[in-house]
Design a protein that fits this description.
alpha+beta, four-stranded antiparallel β-sheet, three-stranded antiparallel β-sheet, 2 helices, 35% strand
Length: 116
Amino acid sequence: MKKIILLFSILFITQFSYSQVFVEDVDINELDIKYIQLIGVNTSMFGVKFKVFVDYGQKAKMMKADGIKDSEGETKKFNTMIDALNFMHSNGWKYINYTEAEFSGKIRYVYLLEKK
């Protein structure tokens, strides 16, 4: 019986514990926001390498990227946008919508995400 209670306790705790997602040193999982935009730009001329940014409604700052960092402060690098979406999903965000937009000759992939 104790093993069953322990198992359910662990499952319950892990269901609600997510990693931290930092943008400009702000944990966006702790903010009182419901939606974000996940914006990806292919930065490679010959292959696929994405620079991924997050727009959560923050003020735009010149010369400062809105890149994603993990709880250790390391900048996350994503091979594809699906890689970035999977990371955000595992951290408590749900996919809503997708659009593409061209800016300065590069296609920007814009995903709308909602906090679970």
